[in-house]
Amino acid sequence: MTENRIVLLLLALAAVLPAFVGDQYVMHLLIMTFFYAMLSTSLNLIVGYVGELSLGHAAFLGLGAYTSAVLSTEAGLPFWLCLPAAGIVAGTAALAVGAITLRLEGHFFVLISLAFAEVLRYVVMNSVELLRGPLGYPNIPAPSLSFGGTVLADFASKAHFYYLGLALLAATLYAAWRFARSSFGLGALAVRENRRLARAVGIDPFRHALVAFVAGGVLAGIAGSFYAHYLTFVGPEVLGFSFTLSALMMVVIGGRGTLLGPLLGAAVVGITLELLRSVNEARLSIFGILLVLAVMFLPDGLVSLRWRRRPEPAEESPTEALDSPLRS
Amino acid sequence: MAMLEIDGVSKRYGGLQAVKDVTLRVGKGEIVSLIGPNGAGKTTLFNLITGFARPDSGRVRLEGEDVTGLSPEAVARHGMVRSFQITNVFANMPVIENLRLASYLRMRSPLLSDVFGLRSARDRAARTMKEANGILDLVGLARFRDTPAKRLAYGQLRLLEIAIALCVRPRLLLLDEPAAGLNSREGEKLTELLRRLRDGRGLTVLLVEHDMDLVMSVSDRVVVLNFGEKIAEGTPAEVKENPQVIEAYLGTPFEEEAA
Ligand SMILES: Nc1ncnc2c1ncn2[C@@H]1O[C@H](COP(=O)(O)OP(=O)(O)O)[C@@H](O)[C@H]1O
Ligand SMILES: [Mg+2]
Predict the structure, then answer these.
(1) Where are the domains of chain A?
(2) Which pLDDT tens digit goes with each residue over A121-130?
């Protein structure tokens, strides 16, 4: 079974699941899994496909969530307008940040992406007049779907959010799939595999990283909008590092640069995170350790257990040392 | 008009003058070899021409167009494509996938038509893959189409590197020691391939090579570098009789070395 088919099968299973699940808490876990799967798929575009480590992804999630919160509570705009606006605001920010920082080599990009999110969180925390500071935005209205005066879905029940989340996740996966298959995905893959050779055959690493970064920003902003309307509250913590770290763990544990990986990662990590709520302080430490173990023992993630994109390295490979910069 | 004109190009690394005021021309359809002892600045000169390093001074022109200081990717788009002295392929990918990635410039289409999978983009991809298969035949790697590059033997890897460069459809091909590590039979196959590229495809080649049999049999002209400076230039016959070259590089008259 190909990776795409498995993803489709999982989505189809998810579509019929509410018929068998009545438990509201389980529904909530699944909805949050959809959210995390969107977030990690968006991060995977830059971390997995281009190979640039972005530690500021929560910034785009937060920008999307705040855009939705402000537009719906202050301006009274409906969810269906807030959602694209969240994507546009987050994508524009990604364009600005990426255009400046993606030109920087390696570590600088990592540090500045992190600094960007942290500065943004600090600014929001301290904008008490403008953005309600640490109070955040409560009572974000639920979406409502109506047609010709008849309300089709009022989102009073979890099932409505469940299908909204599933639809947004499917759209996110479709976008990521098209990206990976496009010539942009091809160029990004070349850059990740061998940056120097990619440049020698005419591929511009900066342009590819920027496109992936902006696409990832848009998708994270949309995930943020969904998050805001589902949980009905947005505060400065959506800009916090723990969201970036969670998404990063999902991408790495699931499998970088694959469609299925972030999905599996979101399911495994997201649900475990949720179940570990009782040991709140220890949660991230536990996951830090899991992340290290995953990188050491399963560097290509859960998907590599069955669907290896890359062949296993040959033991006596003649070119093993050839990528090493030490050889000259 | 010459294919490549290098005018007074220099590069200094700290206290070391790696390339010093080098001027040379490569005519269209020529195979020109660049020889010289290790550390003479041959690879550095390649880096300066192809945008991997910036010259301190001097100009580089490709068919009259100034390409000095452009980025490596921009230089490749102008049709000047290099290989690397240290083997450099997409090691994790199968051979054919290496060529698909290398054909990127021709696969690429406007972002949206591509993302939405329009017919024009698909046709282009199909044509490009056909050409990639042709290139595999040409370099004799068709059998290894689906072999991961990291499993190839050394000689096959060097051919793959040339195939990768050819996928960019270069006007000018720069090869940095393509025969290093090849056995004599593989060396002969490479000589044959270079001739076919020049005569069949009208390709211009600038070659850095230590294998004197290959250099002498395939080159139209030979340029000699020593300590970053050009010390001689001429036909293979002229260069191997040049006393300065013999002293700096060949060590003994060429015939004896080859024997
Ligand atoms: N990036 C660099 N930084 C410092 N020194 C360099 C660099 N690149 C090359 N050199 C030096 O320049 C000289 C020429 O090297 P190179 O061009 O690799 O010679 P060749 O290819 O002819 O063997 C060597 O002494 C080398 O150490
Ligand atoms: Mg060299």
Answers:
(1) 27-238
(2) 999 999 888 8
